[in-house]
Amino acid sequence: MPMREVWEPESVGLTSSAERRTGKSMSEMLAERQVSGIALDLRAMAVVSNVHRVAMRTRHHFEQGVLRDSGLTWTGFVTLWVLWVWGEMQTRWLAEEVGISRSTLSGVLNTLERRGLLRRRAHESEGRLVMAELTPGGEALVESLFPRFNAEESFMVSRLSLRQQEDLADALRSIHGLLDAQEAAGKAPFDQAARG
């Protein structure tokens, strides 16, 4: 098997001017170059890879900014925020709303409970189910953080017009809805037949 070359940005002749000219990141241009001989949907690849890149940058931006002094991780904050919005809820639904597994949520809840930000209790009629809710301290923390969090959200979309913001939110909802529908139909993400 031939050894792959190691690409440095300068060695391929791509610089920030290429990024500015194309509007694409260096990673995106290199990925397109790598798959150029394969019949692929490059637009779909660009959308999904950019959603991923922005999601990771967003998480890092918030953890290193707004959340840093609070000692919360992104997942910890989202857990508190979901409880702030929805109120007390079963942990199995909380895990789904936060977008993590129940086992991961268990560790997050342990940490937040030790900090006095939420409490858990057994469900009244179904003892196996666990309920979680914010404590007054958890509620106060979310209420103090959220205006700063939202200011950063506004900053992050400040280069987009109001119409672009609405269109992007609608497009992301559409992707989310498609994935929800596929999951609800019990179809595996890799199931070609599921795509019709």
Describe the structure in brief.
With 196 residues, the chain is mostly helical. It has helices spanning 16-22, 26-34, 42-64, 74-86, 91-98, 102-114, 136-156, 162-184; strands spanning 89-90, 118-122, 130-134.
Describe this structure in words.
This protein has 196 residues and is mainly alpha-helical. It has a domain at 49-156: Winged helix-like DNA-binding domain superfamily/Winged helix DNA-binding domain (Arc Repressor Mutant, subunit A, Orthogonal Bundle). The chain has helices at residues 16-22, 26-34, 42-64, 74-86, 91-98, 102-114, 136-156, 162-184; strands spanning 89-90, 118-122, 130-134. Strands 1-3-2 form a three-stranded antiparallel β-sheet. Helix 4 packs across helix 5. The longest helix has 23 residues, at 42-64. The two termini are 37 Å apart.
What labels would you give this structure?
196 residues, mainly alpha, globular
Query: How large, in whole angstroms, is the Cα Rg?
Result: 21 Å
Judging by the overall fold, what is the CATH architecture of the domain at 49-156?
Answer: Orthogonal Bundle
Spatial strand arrangement across the major sheet: 1-3-2
Portion of residues within helices: 55-70%
Can you write the helix and strand succession as a string? HHHHEHHEEHH
Q: What's the end-to-end separation, in Å?
A: 37 Å
How much of the sequence is in beta strands? 5-15%
Q: List unreliable stretches of 5+ residues.
A: 9-14
What's the overall geometry?
globular
Biggest sheet details: 3 strands, antiparallel
